Amino acid sequence: MSALVCGCADNKDDTVKMITEATFPPYEFLRGQEIVGIDVEICRAVAQKLGKNFQCETVDFDSVIPAVISGKAHLAAAGITVTEDRKKNVDFSDPYVKTGIVVVYKKGNPFKDTAQLKGKKIGVQGGTTSETFVTDELKQEPERTKSPAEAVAALKAGRVEFVIADIDPAKNCVKGEDTLAISDFITSEEYAIAIKKGQPELLKTINETIAEVKADGRLEKWVADFTAEADKLKDK
């Protein structure tokens, strides 16, 4: 577990802590040692609305939701898809992004439909809805990695035949890769902020903040700015 602070305070009662997994540009990624991205700014705006300081920390994705369940963090935001299983354990804010997962494939082995994935070695980031798609829809075990980038590296090396990932990291991974391509959406999903159950006032504040940043254009600007920054990082 790696703690990277985006603004902190000594008094925990005066601080809103966000937990994330900072390998998911443009939603969360590292600018040097600083965690930045769309999700970070939304959660920072929540802290500002509450009149509190803001702190964020990065962990492996499968530790993000457990961190809010256990009370180690107030907010979980990491491009988290709302699912019925997750709703049993946490409360979700109103969605702020409509998205989905896609298939990353080699152009020499083009993807046609999901039936083609049956029995194939498929790379995914562990703990994500991409993993769930493979286990629940394809009824098989995927090749789990710590990030979409690692899964795509396995695809390039021939260790897996396809990769399933969220659209944004998939786009980032194939940028500049002439031999790779991505499919259309194979699912429809929504991202939201997760919190520990039983906190209606916090949930109300988060939902109000999401509505405000959508209405005043901040969310649109963050999407544009952090997408551009993530593209530049990919080019380096």
What would your notes on this structure say?
The protein is of the alpha/beta class and 236 residues long. The protein is built from eight helices and 14 strands. A five-stranded mixed beta sheet has the order 10-9-11-8-12, with helices on both faces. Helix 1 crosses helix 7. The radius of gyration is 18 Å and the shape is globular. The relative contact order is 0.19. The N terminus is likely disordered.
Task: Explain briefly what this protein structure is.
The chain is an alpha/beta fold and 236 residues long. Helix content is 36%, strand content 22%.
Could you outline the blueprint of secondary structure elements for this entry?
Elements: E1 15-20, E2 29-31, E3 34-36, H1 38-50, E4 53-58, H2 64-69, E5 75-76, H3 84-87, E6 90-92, E7 97-99, E8 101-106, E9 122-125, H4 129-137, E10 143-145, H5 148-157, E11 162-166, H6 167-174, E12 180-182, E13 189-191, E14 194-196, H7 200-215, H8 218-235
Parallel strand pairs: 1-4, 1-5, 9-10, 9-11
Antiparallel strand pairs: 2-3, 6-14, 7-13, 8-11, 8-12
